[in-house]
Design goal:
CATH architecture of the largest domain: Up-down Bundle
Radius of gyration: 34 Å
CATH class of the largest domain: Mainly Alpha
Strand content: 5-15%
Distance between the termini: 27 Å
Number of domains: 3
CATH superfamily of the largest domain: Calcium-transporting ATPase, transmembrane domain
CATH topology of the largest domain: Calcium-transporting ATPase, transmembrane domain
Number of helices: 23
Length: 546
């Protein structure tokens, strides 16, 4: 599909055009996933630096590890700390890796022959386990909230003598800045203008998430946390799904509840994820979007789409591409159905008239306006080339419309009206061409040749009105080339004796080419008028005419 997008399911391309909600992770999708330490609020700088190094298993030399931990190590290096030397001098006794259930990571090392624990994690989780007085706890919590409201990701550090998970001493707060991707604000504006709601789901502090949301242009004044969702398990969550666009401190399993809740409200949901625990939500969503760079194998396996650059702007581009594909399919159907309907009306009507008037060929069969060979030629050449060229159509205006309802018909009401109107009008003009050629004194073979060339060339011109709705596509040079090549081929086969004979004596005197050209231009103008009238009458910009 578009750049940076791998489509794993063909149905996802169509579903993208109906997406009404995009649920996106903050870190790495809306932001650059580049954690830089801006400052450290600590009364004990040296021990805080040791905590940053020891409570981490990242390797700054190779770049392996979590971006947050790499940011901590880079900061420690900038302060003159050698991570390898610190780790070598402090053998690990035990460790407790980070988990969303407890929201901190602890390592216990030997320091001067005695066990010492160093901890890093979410401020609210660490402060609850620290030995703090009420005023001290309130002071540190207020600081963490203030920093988070400024958009920083806040990490708390603590330590304690011994191998313990409580009674720690607060070391301070680390302020990390993960800047939003420069292209994300424009992508968010584009999504909102297209009627696609953007929902941020993150494990970060709610104030941090809300600050980033405001920075990139997401509407909303409050954030709902995973704890809020857990309390609302009885059904209160539904009220939040209508007006809350930021969900923070969310557990992976709660993403599935959010997807279910949105789908219950008849939303078409695209969900991003990168971890193993995100797989159920990705599978449940209408369009699962996995991260290609940092995503797990499991998340990529169950997802419909893989983002090769983990960028939110790529998701919006994929939605636009999905809408464009659907729009091109509708153009394709309008073009083929309208032109083939004109052939059907011409041949069927011609057969009825031939029977009524007793017009027969030398073998005694009814004289039809088109032979079988001519019909096959029209369907092969003048149908095929322009239809293939439609694959290159680009229609940026599709992002100025609301999402297409998932249950909408592929052929909507305006398209059916265009097909019927344009197809019948073209057939009537073809009958007029046959009648005019007769009145000019030519025989039935010449009249049929004129009808054949009119149907073929008029068919080529029909590609233009079939592309026009209330959303106008960009100029498509491939369409122009297909029409030009088709006309050249049509004129050429009429001038070659062998091909003219194979196609039912399709040679046409030069003066009659003017009649064919005028009739083709008239049918083109009529189809354009019908297209304009149909979409103006429906007056459903953005409603898809259903």
């Amino acid at each position: 599909m578009g750049k940076g997008t791998l489509i794993r399911s063909l149905g996802a391309a169509e579903a993208l055009g109906s997406v009404t909600v995009v649920c996106a992770d903050k870190t790495g999708t809306l932001t650059e996933n580049r954690m830089d330490v801006r400052s450290v609020d600590t009364p004990d700088v040296m021990r805080s630096l040791k905590a940053m190094v020891l409570a981490s298993d990242a390797d700054v030399t190779t770049g392996a590890g979590d971006p947050l931990e790499l940011g901590l190590l880079r900061h420690a290096q900038s302060q003159g700390i050698n991570p390898d030397s610190i780790r070598a001098a402090h053998p690990v006794v035990s460790s407790k890796p980070f988990d969303s259930a407890w929201k901190y990571a602890r390592v216990t090392v030997l320091e001067d022959g005695r066990p010492v624990s160093y901890v890093k994690g979410a401020p609210e989780a660490l402060l609850a386990r620290c030995a703090l007085t009420g005023p001290d706890h309130e002071s540190w919590s207020a600081k963490a909230d203030a920093y988070a409201r400024d958009g920083f990701r806040v990490l708390a550090l603590a330590w304690a003598a011994g191998d313990t998970d409580e009674g720690w001493t607060v070391l301070g707060l680390v302020l990390l800045w993960d800047p939003p991707r420069t292209e994300v604000p424009d992508a968010v504006r584009k999504a909102l203008a297209a009627g696609v709601r953007v929902v941020m789901i993150t494990g970060d502090h709610p104030a941090t998430a809300l600050a980033i949301a405001h920075h990139i242009g997401m509407p909303g004044t409050r954030a709902v946390t995973g704890e809020d969702l857990a309390r609302d398990a009885g059904g209160g969550m539904a009220a939040n799904l209508d007006d809350v666009n930021v969900f923070a401190r969310v557990l992976p399993e709660q993403k599935l509840r959010l997807v279910h809740g949105l789908q219950d409200r008849r939303q078409v949901v695209a969900m991003t994820g990168d971890g193993v625990n995100d797989a159920p939500a990705l599978k449940q969503s209408d369009v699962g979007v996995a991260m290609g760079q940092r995503g797990s194998d499991v998340s990529r396996e169950v997802a419909d789409i893989v983002l090769l650059d983990d960028n939110f702007a790529t998701i919006v581009g994929a939605v636009e591409e999905g809408r464009g594909i659907y729009e091109n399919i509708q153009k394709f159907l309008r073009f083929l159905f309208s032109t083939n309907l004109s052939e059907l009306v011409l041949v069927a009507g011609g057969a009825v008239l031939a029977f009524i008037l007793g017009v027969r060929d030398s073998a005694g069969a009814l004289l039809l306006p088109l032979t079988a060979a001519q019909i096959l030629w029209i369907n092969l050449v003048t149908d095929g080339l322009p239809a293939l060229a439609l694959a290159f159509d680009r229609t940026p205006g599709v992002m100025q419309q609301p999402p297409r309802p998932a249950e909408s018909a592929l052929l909507d009401r305006p398209s059916i009206q265009f097909i019927l109107g344009a197809g019948v009008v073209k057939a009537l003009i073809a009958f007029g061409v046959v009648a005019l050629v007769y009145r000019l004194g030519h025989d039935t073979t010449t009249a049929r040749a004129a009808a054949f060339h009119f149907m073929a060339i008029g068919q080529l011109f029909f590609i233009y009105p079939a592309r026009h709705t209330w959303v106008r596509p960009l100029p498509n040079p491939y369409v122009h080339a297909a029409v030009a090549v088709g006309i050249v081929i049509q004129v050429t086969i009429a001038g070659l004796a062998s091909s003219a004979q194979l196609l039912g004596n399709s040679f046409l005197p030069l003066p009659l080419w003017g009649v064919v050209a005028a009739a083709a231009g008239l049918s083109w103008a009529a189809a354009e008028g019908i297209a304009a009238a149909v979409w103006r009458r429906n007056d459903t910009k953005g409603s898809n005419g259903n």
